[in-house]
Specification:
alpha/beta, TIM Barrel, 5-stranded mixed β-sheet, globular
């Protein structure tokens, strides 16, 4: 039975070299014993890296080919071995209450600034999987009440939670995540790369593993979304330690121009 590594919170930014992102993710998938890796993009308003990759040509790294294309999914294979990688389209919605909703598995676009509940409803109407994403400070204070209201409004099967590698190892488990399992609500795990170039090798650092049958000659999107919704998942990898967390936060807030400097993939 093939093992699948699924990272459900992947950003591709202008300073990132996709070749390095692809190689780092594929190495992590191989180390996890996966026969397939799946990167779920959550692109911000105005971005469409999925379309660029799906167009192929110079957008793909040397030696990487698109083995199959679907409307919202792409299967890439490399000539240096390693597991194939599925790229799945999706969006990140910055909501009016300053929480984030991810819409996984869709080419639809959504406006920022809408209410969080409306974002969930729009994602569902687009046949996407909405995810309530954790963020630093975004589930605290007044926003904690927003999170609670969303979890009361939407049944467990309709709104999973999203954990990311940005939640540092010393951070207590947020209350909604602590009770999620008892209520049958899923917690999906993702790397959440930031814009600086040194983040381009982040994909797969914090992800999920599934041991599920998967036919690589058949459709991509439907079976991958079924794995996210229904299959047993186990978190894989690690979240940021104290030093990495501080470095990432400082770099993100400076928003200084970053060159595409070579940077080793984090283990």
């Amino acid at each position: 039975m093939p093992r699948i590594l699924l990272d459900t919170h992947v950003h591709l930014y202008p300073a990132h070299d996709f070749a390095r992102t692809f190689d780092a993710f594929r190495r992590r998938a191989a180390r996890a014993g996966a026969g397939l890796g799946a990167m779920f993009l959550v692109e911000r308003a105005g971005q469409d890296e999925f379309a660029r990759l799906a167009a192929g040509g110079a957008a793909l790294p040397r030696g990487v080919v698109a083995a199959r294309r679907e409307n919202a999914a792409l299967l890439l294979r490399g000539d240096r071995g390693g597991p194939p990688v599925a790229i799945v389209a999706g969006r990140q919605i910055a909501c009016a209450e300053r929480v984030e909703i991810l819409a996984l598995g869709t080419r639809e676009t959504f406006p920022d600034g809408i209410a969080a509940a409306e974002a969930v409803e729009r994602a569902r109407r687009a046949d996407a999987l909405p995810v309530l994403a954790w963020g630093v400070g975004k589930w605290l204070g007044a926003r904690a009440r927003v999170v609670d209201a969303l979890l009361r409004r939407f049944p467990a099967e309709e709104l999973p939670l999203g954990d990311t590698s940005l939640r540092p190892s010393f951070w207590p488990t947020p209350g909604p995540m602590a009770v999620a399992a008892t209520l049958g609500r899923r917690v999906l795990h993702g790397s959440d790369p930031l814009p600086p170039a040194f983040e381009q090798t982040r994909a797969g650092q914090w992800a999920d593993l599934a041991d599920e049958p998967f036919d690589l000659s058949g459709p991509l999107l439907g079976p991958l979304m079924a794995v996210l919704r229904e299959a047993p998942l186990a978190p894989a990898g690690r979240r940021a330690g104290p030093v990495q967390f501080l470095r990432r936060m400082l770099a993100s807030r400076k928003r200084a121009p970053v060159q595409r400097a070579a940077a080793p993939a984090d283990a």
